[in-house]
């Protein structure tokens, strides 16, 4: 176990524990600052909640052993990309510099410390806190992609297996973009179930409905590509008819969530129409699944989200869901932005998935 400096403060009363990692290069990490400000404004921090909410402090930096399996950007001296102050040649929209690797190790240390805390708490209480890592998102196994420099949720999954002996890991990716890196990492692995909900065709060639795993891992990957303009109704359909039965059938030892907020109707990165309340319902349901199936062991990892207002409000409402408190989404959600959902397209996608996976 790689503990934080406050390991002795594991509490049997905490409902939520979170970590914050701010990078020097604030693209797109300015969103972490915006989220922290929103949490303060919403009184969703230890300052206002006492022991109910804990922020993990002074976490140890991850080691090469922690980020094994090659699912991380290589150090600059070993990178396949040309590293300079201008970024990494070939990394597309991912801005990285010669400090990116070190900062990524700091983020990874925070995330695996959250896993350690949640697992340790589950040993002393039936209601351990849910973890939420406000850090940098994932990438593909051999390099950076899509504003992402490291495979955080994949590293956390392997850490849970290797260090804590939690064999069966269920990963839910709710970003608007397919979780290509995580998908590829576990495509042959029957012990890691990867479920991705995303916009159909937003990343060509990735996240197709018939991408279901390979070899021993066949059936342990499930992609839910939703048509453009799918929103709250479509997500609730997927939640009830896909996420819940898949998780119940897999019987995980821990649930990890790639918590992307770029499917929000106000976000410029997609043409989906999720609302703040959509994320509240998702977090509430996932929390209940963790309580019912794996002793409450569950950790969320921040992913996409480029509209700082909708991102911050949605993360704050996710915190309320994980705390078991009422949603505040009515204050933020406006139907002004929403057009008619493609109900038929969403239903057809769900029906095809149910046939493929015998749900």
Radius of gyration: 19 Å
Work out the strand percent: 5-15%
> What order do the SSEs take from the amino end to the carboxyl end, as H and E?
EHHEEEHEHEHEEHEHEHH
Through-space gap between termini: 37 Å
CATH homologous superfamily grouping: Histone deacetylase domain
Layout of secondary structure:
Blueprint: E1 16-20, H1 26-41, H2 46-49, E2 53-55, E3 82-84, E4 87-89, H3 100-122, E5 130-134, H4 152-164, E6 169-173, H5 180-185, E7 192-199, E8 221-226, H6 232-250, E9 254-259, H7 276-293, E10 298-302, H8 308-323, H9 343-356
Parallel strand pairs: 1-2, 1-5, 5-10, 6-7, 6-9, 7-8, 9-10
Antiparallel strand pairs: 3-4
Helix pairs in contact: 1-8, 3-4, 6-7, 6-9, 7-8
Task: Characterise this structure.
- The protein has an eight-stranded parallel beta sheet, sandwiched between helices. A two-stranded antiparallel ribbon has the order 3-4.
- It has helices at 26-41, 46-49, 100-122, 152-164, 180-185, 232-250, 276-293, 308-323, 343-356, and strands spanning 16-20, 53-55, 82-84, 87-89, 130-134, 169-173, 192-199, 221-226, 254-259, 298-302.
- Helix 7 (276-293) packs parallel to helix 8 (308-323).
- Residues 1-8, 70-95 and 138-150 have low confidence and may be disordered.
- It has one domain (10-356): 3-Layer(aba) Sandwich (Arginase, Chain A), CATH 3.40.800.20.
- It contains nine helices and ten strands.
- The chain is globular, with a radius of gyration of 19 Å.
- With 359 residues, it is α/β, with parallel strands linked by helices.
- One of its GO terms (biological process) is epigenetic regulation of gene expression.
- This is Histone deacetylase 14.
- One of its GO terms (cellular component) is histone deacetylase complex.
- InterPro entries: HDACs, His_deacetylse_dom, His_deacetylse_dom_sf, Ureohydrolase_dom_sf.
- Residues 30-321 form the Histone deacetylase domain.
């Amino acid at each position: 176990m790689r503990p934080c400096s406050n390991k002795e403060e594991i509490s049997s009363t905490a409902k939520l524990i979170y970590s914050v990692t701010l990078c020097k290069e604030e693209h797109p990490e300015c969103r972490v600052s915006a989220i922290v400000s929103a949490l303060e404004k919403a009184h969703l921090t230890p300052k206002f909640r006492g022991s109910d909410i804990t922020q993990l402090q002074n976490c140890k930096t991850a080691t090469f052993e922690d980020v094994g399996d090659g699912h991380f950007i290589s150090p600059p001296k070993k990178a396949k990309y040309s590293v300079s102050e201008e970024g990494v040649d070939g990394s597309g929209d991912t801005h990285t510099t010669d400090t990116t690797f070190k900062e990524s190790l700091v983020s990874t240390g925070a995330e695996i410390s959250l896993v350690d805390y949640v697992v340790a708490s589950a040993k002393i209480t039936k209601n351990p806190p849910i973890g939420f890592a406000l850090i940098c998102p994932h990438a593909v196994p051999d390099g950076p992609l899509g504003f992402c420099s490291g495979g955080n949720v994949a590293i956390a999954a392997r850490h849970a297996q290797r260090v804590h002996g939690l064999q069966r890991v269920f990963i839910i990716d709710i970003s608007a973009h397919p979780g290509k890196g995580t998908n590829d990492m576990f495509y042959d692995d029957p012990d890691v179930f990867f479920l991705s909900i995303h916009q159909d065709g937003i990343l060509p060639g990735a996240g197709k409905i018939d991408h279901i795993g390979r070899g021993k891992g066949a059936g342990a990957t499930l992609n839910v590509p939703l048509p453009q303009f799918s929103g709250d109704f479509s997500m609730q359909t997927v939640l009830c008819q896909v996420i819940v039965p898949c998780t119940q059938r897999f019987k995980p030892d821990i649930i990890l969530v790639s918590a992307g907020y770029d499917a929000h109707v106000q976000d410029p990165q997609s043409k989906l129409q999720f609302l703040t309340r959509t994320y509240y319902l998702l977090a509430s349901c996932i929390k209940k699944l963790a309580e019912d199936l794996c002793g409450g062991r569950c950790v969320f990892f921040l992913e996409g989200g480029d509209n700082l207002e909708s991102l911050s409000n949605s993360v704050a409402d996710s915190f309320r869901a994980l705390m078991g408190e009422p949603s505040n989404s009515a204050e933020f959600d406006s139907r002004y932005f929403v057009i008619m959902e493609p109900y038929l397209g969403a239903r057809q996608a769900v029906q095809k998935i149910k046939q493929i996976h015998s749900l």
